[in-house]
Amino acid sequence: MRRIVLAALVVVSSGTCAHAQTTTQVWPEISAFTRLNDRMRFYFLATTVKESQQSTEGEFGPNFDFYLRPFRDRKRLAGFRLDESKNRFLLLRVGYRYLDSFSDDPNEHRVVLEATPRYPLRGGVLVSNRGRVDVRFIDGGYSWRFRSRLSVEKEFSIGPVRMNPYVRGEVFYDSRFDAWSGRSGSVERRFPSTGASNSKDTSTTSTTPVAITTGGCMPSEPC
């Protein structure tokens, strides 16, 4: 099953790269989780986006996650260790994000509301469909955006390295343009550091996702 998933990711990446613009991004990221009870946790995110070795944007903020019971047979169906919430059928998230543009562009304050149902397949493959509303405050202006993202992923180890490759496609509605737009898809690989710390109720993980994103603008999306 692992070989099949990896082969599929390579095929998708190769096929889409021939027909659309391809960009490579690196996202150094630190995620801190504190378990509050069996159905709730506190999550803090700090991440930056790097293109051509330069940081183009930083994103920071606290979140509260609420989730349902875990999968019954998590070892056979999923077994995600980098993010335990992916072993749950449903995740609800309420959060705040501050986005620093690292340039002369205006910074952004964002309220985030998410609902992510998940369906585990055999072999540790996970299908997720995240629905998200961003309430955005940029340079004194207000707007909102709805995003729907479908993901297929699998987590596994190769030697001491824990990997989480996934394929994603997303469509979104932006109130500023009164239009739907989207990306044709992306193939991404996540490489966590070996310095992650975990306890029963608290974990801090430093990861470096490397994204090879392939896609173009939809007809309604400003390029």
Question: What does the model show?
Answer:
This protein is mostly beta strands. It has helices at 2-17, 74-77; strands spanning 22-26, 29-37, 40-51, 54-67, 90-100, 108-120, 125-138, 141-154, 156-158, 161-163, 166-174, 179-192, 197-198, 202-214. A ten-stranded antiparallel β-barrel has the order 2-3-4-5-6-7-8-11-12-14. It has a two-stranded antiparallel ribbon with strand order 9-10. The termini are far apart. Residues 1-20 and 211-223 have low confidence and may be disordered.
Q: What descriptive keywords fit this protein?
A:
223 residues; mainly beta; ten-stranded antiparallel β-barrel; two-stranded antiparallel ribbon; 14 strands; 9% helix; globular; disordered C terminus
Describe what is shown at a glance:
The chain is mainly β and 223 residues long. Helices cover 9% and strands 61% of the residues.
Taking Cα atoms only, what radius of gyration do you get, to the nearest Å?
18 Å
Oligomeric composition of the shown chains: single chain
Summed up, the helix count is 2
Structural class: mainly beta
Q: What portion of residues belong to β-strands?
A: over 45%
Helical percent range?
Answer: under 10%
From the N-terminal CA to the C-terminal CA, the straight-line distance is 38 Å
Average pLDDT number: 74
